[in-house]
Amino acid sequence: MLLAMLFCQLLFAQQDTMQAKSPFSVSGNADLYFRYGLNKTASSTIPSYAHARPGLGWINLLTEGEFKRWGFLLELGAGERAKQLYSSEGEDYSFLIQGQAYLKLNDKWKTSFGAFTTHFNYEWTEPGSNGNYSNTFIYTIIPASYTGLRMDYAPNETWSFMLGVFADSDRRVEENKGKHLGGQANYASEKLNATANFITGNDGDTIQVFMTDCYGDYAFSDKFKLGWELYLMFSDHIANGKSAWQGLALYFQQQFTPRFSLNLRSEILHDPKGYWFGYTGSDIFSNTLTGKFKLKPFVLQQEIRLDHADHAVFETKKSNFVHQEVSFLLGASVFF
Question: Would 52 be classed as within a structural domain?
Answer without folding.
Answer: no
